[in-house]
Amino acid sequence: MTxxxxxxxxxxxxxxxxxxxxxxxxxxxILVLTLKAKPKGRGLKLEPxxxxxxxxxxxxxVLEFENWEKFKKELELIKPLMGVIAxxxxxxxxxxxxxxxxxxxxxxxxxxxxxxxxxxxxxxILKGEKETGITIILIDELVDHGPILAQKVxxxxxxxxxxxxxxxxxxxxxxLLKEIIEDYLExxxxxxxxxxxxxxxxxxxxxxxxxxxxxxxxxxxxxxxRALNPxxxxxxxxxGKIFKIFEIEKVxxxxxxxxxxxKTKIGEFFTFKNELGLRLKDAFxxxxxxxxxxxxxxxxxxxxxxxxxxxxxx
Length: 314
Hints:
Number of strands: 15
Strand order of the largest sheet: 5-2-1-6-7-8-9
Number of helices: 9
Low-confidence stretches: none
Structural class: alpha/beta
Distance between the termini: 68 Å
Strand content: 25-35%
Mean pLDDT: 95
CATH architecture of the largest domain: 3-Layer(aba) Sandwich
Shape: elongated
């Protein structure tokens, strides 16, 4: 049976849900605060935040965020003891933090002080880190700056994509939160100041970050594709249209005919055994999953069968 805690959970992402799923195995917050529904699709129909839908399914008390002034009035009625934030995507002002007697904990998906800010998951993949992890801190007025309660390392194999890493670290974060929450409330945990001189920062990712340069090397392509899907997506331009690339495979050059190796220039497509290939600066690759603007996602082979003339003029 889950134990109810006088705690408000702040979250609005898939990461939030993975943290919550683990936490709910033992504890239940009195309220979840998430972001408002947004218009989506061609009809711009309002679609609730994924955390809101999850909370309805799990029969959790949930509130959509409107503004801090209104939320402050809610807090005065609820009188929570503490808060937990995990993937909320809004900075909580100091006047709100001060209302919580035990403060607000942040479940952050990196080994702080490295990778503070909005995109630690993407950045560790882009940088080719060997490890990452979860850090739980007590938040202060600065971003990801507060003292550390607990930290757990997660080794990286070098083939993780964003979605997989989000799930793995979300679950790890939920388990760690579950382990330390009562000790924290009973003041049994010694807080440790971060080594601020070692801090590194991430930035907001823009759509343009997903552009793949045909003259870049394989490692750059591999990391970008794993880090930047589903958002903002990784792509090149093909006859003026966005051509998304979701998955690639490095080709052993020993298995390619010499004619392809000698005649295919950097940035040019080729085909071999019904596979759609592309030459990069230092490698030949197959495009395993792609999507042309206005079309559905498909395998490279399917694209070759239906759109060969877009790539090969003769």
